[in-house]
Please model this.
Amino acid sequence: MSNKINVLMIDDNQNSVNRVKNYFSKHEVIDLVLTAVNGKEGLDKIINYQNEYDLIIMDLIMPELDGITILEEMKERNIKKHVIILTSYKKEYTVKAVSEYNIDYYMLKPFNMESLEKRILEIMNFKELKTSDRENELRVKISEMLHNLGVPSHIKGYQYIRDGILMMYKEPAMLKGITKEIYPELATRYQTTSSRVERAIRHAIEVSWTRGDYRLMEKYFGNSLDYEKSKPTNAEFIVTLTDRLRLDNKVVMI
Model:
């Protein structure tokens, strides 16, 4: 198996496509390599680019050709590829009809990016990750924590915080090196500057503090902060969430 899972996405909703593209833009193994904005273009890419993708993410309701027609064409042409249906259409007879084509997973919109990521890895039975399986488990746990705290997954600060927590979890010595170690590392990784990393993280925390669950904030940050008056600093936010992970006996140190 190659060291990448190459994905073809067929969806006329550009927002959905951009969301998936942005989320996986820096992913270790999942790469969105082909897209199509209607069923006809999608079928053309399915047929003519079979060596360039491993898995298809596809909506059902699209211009030109619908998803079921595409699945029928794939069956007739004996094109065997992994398929995830990602749609807002949930009529029972449609779900039943689609299931006859041996698709791998049926996911309803609106969808959670972490769940989509997990399904792709499961479907591909992907074991040859650059990171360990335990690290991938940890990433999922961090993502769930940030999601519950109200940090939007589409903003840059979300990715920076997630990676920063992972870095500090693996290297506790970084505890005193947020500015001198974590920011520069993230800046290099995402081809930006340390100051932009710092601002993006601060913005993500501000959004979280505005839309997050007060009871969960209190659980994570205790009485160390006045929720009404004070937001945690970037360092406090990352360090506190890293410590919360360490207290979770389900997470094993890497």
